Amino acid sequence: MLLVVTLILIFVFGILYGFSYDGMLSPFGSALVLFFAFSLFFLGFFGLSHLLSSWSLESNPWVVDVKEMDRWFNPMYDPWLFYHEHKKWAKWNTLISLVLTVLFGTPIWVVFTFIPSPPPNNPENSWTNSWTGWAIATTLMTLFAFSWYLYYTSVDRTLSPFPRGHLSDLPRRL
Asked: What is the dihedral of CA 147, 148, 151, 154, to 10 degrees?
């Protein structure tokens, strides 16, 4: 709940104070736009990792019965970690998604910010605003990723009273 309220307040202040008097984005406005893009990238990378891990686990049911698994170089380690140590899986995927977000989001931001020529009235100010906005957005994204990890690991993942089966069993259950 605190995460939602914080995001709403950030966007309200961004709408109020995001533009300077000459119509260019202020550092806070740049940070708001970039933070929104970074959040979408982060949630996309994390969701893709979740989808791939659950799909691999569904495709290879023998992974559930394995007690110990070698690290990193085993292609089934991520699905195994997803099933057996969900918090550790979430920690590593949060960190990997955050790094991928900054690595993929920053070049896209550079292309959209610096390839078009800056306004002729004060180009130094617009570049300073953009770089300051990038620093603020990266800091906010790190805090968002940490909050996401805390939320994701706090959700109760105990088995429900409804039996869990394979995706192929779904039509028979309906």
From this structure: -110
